[in-house]
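Hypothesis: this fold can be encoded by more than one sequence.
Test: take the C-alpha cells below, design a sequence, compare later.
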C-alpha cells in the first residue's frame, strides 16, 4: 500500500463494527447449538473436521466485508508532474576581473578560485534565468553570451584563469561596456550585471562613468563587488624561473567610491567581499534581490485501486456461498 492515498478514509470507521459482528456471531452460534447434560461422553465420538471448520464461513464473510470497506475508501495512487513557466525572466551577465591581482591570497586559496566556486553556486541557484560571462583585465571579451544552457556557463566559469590572453591591468570601463553590449538588446523584464573587481581603473579607453551612463540608458542594473581584505594581502609581483608566481605583502587598493557610484547610478548596490564567507553572502543576497516570477502548473494522474478490492470481495462472497451450499450444506 505504499504511496496509496484514500479519497474517502472515513469509511474505515466501519471496521469498528467488526468486533460487534464477531460478538454477535459467537452469541448466535451458542443460541443455535443444542445442549444436553449427561454424566459421560464416552458413548459419543469426536466432532467431525467439517463441524470444526464451519466458522471459516464467517471468517470469509468478514474478509469480504473488509475488502468492501477498503474499496469504499477509494484507494488510489497519484502521479504528480510539474511544468514550470517563467513569467518574468532575468538576464544576468557576470563581469569578472582576471588581472594578476586576482591571484592574491587574502581569500582562499586565492581571489579567483574563491570567486569561481561562489559564482558557480550562484548559477546553480538561477535555473530559470539566462546568464552570460564577461572577463576583463586591461581589455575585455565575452567568454559566454547570455544563454539558458547552464552547463556552458558553468564550464566557462570553471575555465577562468590568469593567462596572457589579455593585457594585465584593470579596465573597469571596458568590462562594464562589454557586459552592457551583451544585454542592451535583451527582451527580458530585468537586466542585471554583476561587476567584480579587486583594484582601481587604470586601463582601457572607456571611462567607467561613461559605461555606467550607457547601462543606465538601457535600464541595466549593476551590482558591484569589491573583492579584497582591508589592509595588506599577499600579491603576485614576479614569476620565478620555474614558472611559479612570487608573492609579497602589499596594500589592498579598491576604488570603492567609483564602485558605489556605478551601483547607485544604475539602481544596483555595492558590496565589499573581504573573505570567502562574505563573498558567498553577497551572492546569496543578490540572488534574493533579483527574483524570478515562475508559474507552476501541476498535473495529477490518479490510478484507482478500488476495483481489485471489489473483485476480491465478490470472489470471497462467492466462495462462502459455494461452501455453504456444498461442503457445509448438512451443517446449516
Amino acid at each position: 500500500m505504499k504511496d496509496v492515498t484514500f479519497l474517502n478514509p472515513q469509511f474505515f470507521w466501519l471496521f469498528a463494527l467488526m468486533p460487534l459482528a464477531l460478538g454477535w456471531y459467537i452469541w448466535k452460534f451458542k443460541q443455535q447449538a443444542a445442549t444436553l447434560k449427561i454424566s459421560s461422553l464416552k458413548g459419543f465420538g469426536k466432532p467431525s473436521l467439517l463441524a470444526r471448520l464451519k466458522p471459516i464461513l464467517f471468517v470469509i464473510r468478514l474478509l469480504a466485508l473488509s475488502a468492501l470497506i477498503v474499496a469504499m475508501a477509494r484507494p488510489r495512487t497519484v502521479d504528480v508532474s510539474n511544468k514550470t513557466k517563467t513569467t518574468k525572466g532575468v538576464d544576468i551577465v557576470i563581469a569578472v576581473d582576471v588581472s594578476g591581482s586576482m591571484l592574491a591570497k587574502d581569500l582562499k586559496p586565492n581571489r579567483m578560485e574563491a570567486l569561481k566556486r561562489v559564482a558557480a553556486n550562484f548559477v546553480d541557484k538561477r535555473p530559470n534565468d539566462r546568464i552570460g560571462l564577461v572577463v576583463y583585465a586591461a581589455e575585455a571579451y565575452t567568454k559566454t553570451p547570455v544563454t539558458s544552457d547552464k552547463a556552458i556557463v558553468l564550464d566557462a566559469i570553471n575555465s577562468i584563469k590568469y593567462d596572457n590572453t589579455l593585457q594585465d591591468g584593470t579596465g573597469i570601463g571596458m568590462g562594464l561596456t562589454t557586459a552592457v553590449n551583451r544585454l542592451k538588446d535583451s527582451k527580458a523584464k530585468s537586466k542585471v550585471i554583476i561587476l567584480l573587481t579587486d583594484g582601481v581603473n587604470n586601463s582601457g579607453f572607456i571611462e567607467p562613468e561613461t559605461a555606467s551612463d550607457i547601462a543606465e540608458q538601457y535600464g541595466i542594473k549593476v551590482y558591484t563587488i569589491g573583492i579584497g581584505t582591508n589592509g595588506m594581502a599577499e600579491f603576485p609581483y614576479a614569476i620565478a624561473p620555474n614558472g611559479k608566481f612570487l608573492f609579497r605583502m602589499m596594500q589592498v587598493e579598491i576604488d570603492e567610491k567609483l564602485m558605489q557610484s556605478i551601483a547607485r547610478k544604475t539602481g544596483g548596490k555595492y558590496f565589499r567581499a573581504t573573505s570567502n564567507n562574505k563573498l558567498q553572502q553577497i551572492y546569496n543576497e543578490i540572488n534574493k534581490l533579483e527574483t524570478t516570477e515562475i508559474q507552476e502548473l501541476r498535473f495529477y494522474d490518479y490510478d484507482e485501486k478500488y476495483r481489485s478490492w471489489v473483485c476480491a470481495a465478490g470472489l470471497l462472497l462467492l466462495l462462502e456461498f459455494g461452501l455453504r451450499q456444498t461442503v457445509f450444506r448438512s451443517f446449516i
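Residues 306-325 form the longest helix (20 residues). Residues 324 and 330 are 9 Å apart (CA to CA).
Hypothesis status: open.
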